[in-house]
Structure formats: structure tokens, C-alpha cells
């Protein structure tokens, strides 16, 4: 079964002479439990695809379906129980005056859970932070710890699909691998499906089963990670990306 179906997706910003066609006729499927990568250089439309799925890019056409259900103009609250996003910058994504406890507690409350206390404890354990971080504020956390909080917040509604937008590229190189390993473990433990953006082919090679290569808003190639490892890209642009990454 497909967890995510994208068919003929177009996303644009502005109108008339100011119009930017950020995504053009993108199509791909992500199976339940699969980890799918989106790669391509900066400005190629990777984030825009994630934003269109989650409702942050309002002008789009084509078909987006999650768990077999097509998405319309607005997304019901139920949608965000299924689909959650983790952003690139853990500094921008947490409110400076909300403690970790408040961030997670509010999210759980919003999604209608009652056993909030127990769930906050469990979420902190799940992301490897533990209870000593519960009443801290963002300025008391490192970048990696903040991203763990952002991941805990995304996990709070018990989603099936996580949209990960370069989740480690704003972090120190020394903690990037820790966060990637955490994400890999969480996918196993929670049976999650990932759609993960990266400009780094080695990250996608490590984290994903298949990937789509984007250039100027278009998907130019979809390939298995096995083919990536074997340097078997067929499209000249994918070959160029591969050669640039070794
Ligand atoms: N809110 C916006 N308004 C206008 N143009 C945008 C907006 N967001 C993205 N774009 C444009 O869409 C294109 C794709 O951007 P983006 O999806 O962020 O690329 P990537 O994530 O691959 O770096 C770029 O040309 C970018 O300038
Ligand atoms: Mg981006």
C-alpha cells in the first residue's frame, strides 16, 4: 500500500509576471514503512513539495493522497495526526519562552490526549533526552537537543508519515550522525514512513530506500539507493550530483 501518492504536482508562488513555478509535474509514491529521499541542489523545489503536502504552500494542483485519501484545499485536524513535519532549523522551530514540557504538553492536548504526563515522559525517553530536560527552555539546549525536542513534538500525535526537511543540516557535524541514527531507530520502533529532503547524497544513501532527484522544480530520476551506491544513475544530472559527492 502507498502511504503517500504524489501525481502531477505543480506548486507555484506569486502570479502573472512574478509567478515562480517551484514544482512542476512531480510524481512519486512512498510505500508504507518506506524511507524516501528527495535530493537536488538548493532551490530545486524539495522543501516546496513537503510544504505542499503539509498545507504550507497554498497554491498547488495535481493529486496528493495520504493513506489512500486525497487531500483537498484544507486539511482536517485528523490529517495532522497522520502527517507531521520536522524542519531544518531547530532554533527557529521552538518558541523561546515555552519549556520542553509546555511544547510537548500543548501538542498532546491539541491532539486530544488525556494521559499527557505519562506521554511527555515517554516522548522524552523515545528521543533519548530523558527527564532532566523536561523543564528546560530552548536557550538551555544545544542544537541537537532542540532537534530531539522537535522530533518528540512531531511524534506526539503518533503520526504514520514524517516529512523531514534537512533535519540535520543546521547541526554541528559531530551531532548529525546521532540525530540520523535516532531517526533510523524511531522509524523501526514506530513503523514510520519517511519522506526526507537532503542535499547530501551520503545522508540519503544511509537513511533511504529510494530517492527522487530534483532539478529546477522537476523530478529527473527516481532510483533505488542500491543503484545510488553502485553509481548507476542514468540521468546526466544525477550522475553529476553523484560525481560531485564522492
Ligand atoms: N514563499 C515563497 N515565495 C516565492 N518563491 C518561493 C517561496 N518559497 C520557495 N520559493 C521558490 O521556489 C523555488 C524552490 O524553493 P525550495 O522548495 O525552497 O527549494 P529547495 O528546498 O530545494 O532548496 C525557489 O526558486 C524558491 O526561491
Ligand atoms: Mg529546502
Concise overview:
This protein is α/β, with parallel strands linked by helices and 246 residues long.
Q: Note the main sheet.
A: 6 strands, mixed
CATH architecture: 3-Layer(aba) Sandwich
CATH homologous superfamily caption: P-loop containing nucleotide triphosphate hydrolases
Strand content: 25-35%
Tell the overall outline. Answer: globular
CATH class: Alpha Beta
Question: N- to C-terminal separation?
Answer: 35 Å
**Spatial arrangement of strands, main beta sheet:** 6-7-8-3-9-10
Low-confidence stretches: none
Average pLDDT across residues? 94
If you had to describe this structure to a student in words, what would you say it looks like?
The chain is of the alpha/beta class. The chain has a single domain (35-44, 75-245), classed as Rossmann fold. The protein contains nine helices and ten strands. The strands form two sheets. It has a six-stranded mixed β-sheet, sandwiched between helices. A four-stranded antiparallel β-sheet has the order 2-1-4-5, covered by helices on one side. α3 (100-110) crosses α4. The protein starts with a strand and ends with a helix. The structure holds adenosine-5'-diphosphate and magnesium ion. Magnesium ion binds at residues 46-47.
